[in-house]
Amino acid sequence: MPGTVFNANISTRGPDAIIELSGDVNSGAQEGLEEAYRKVEGGDGRVLLDFTKTDYINSTGIALIVGLLGRARAEGREVVAYGLTAHYREVFQITRLSDFMTIYDDQRAASVAAK
Prior knowledge:
Mean pLDDT: 93
Strand order of the largest sheet: 1-2-3-4-5
Number of helices: 4
Order of helices and strands: EEHEHEHEH
Shape: globular
CATH class: Alpha Beta
Radius of gyration: 13 Å
């Protein structure tokens, strides 16, 4: 249900940067998502977007993710996602976001795929 405040926590796993998104990914997420990416910018590994704790993503949130993809692409970094619900996996397919990032079921699957 919409209305949960957005938060982004950052961790690393080897060379990969993990951005754990929680709450609603909407216009209120812009500052937090941009700040999170600034903190991992310039790294060598992939950027893993963890949607496990994401409650809601609207069209503005999709646009924010597209912007993040553009920044990563300019750096030559791969972005992957995991933890999306079936509904949001479908949204990512319809919006063609899944054409620009690989989507995994969970962090383990994303980590294994990197090897």
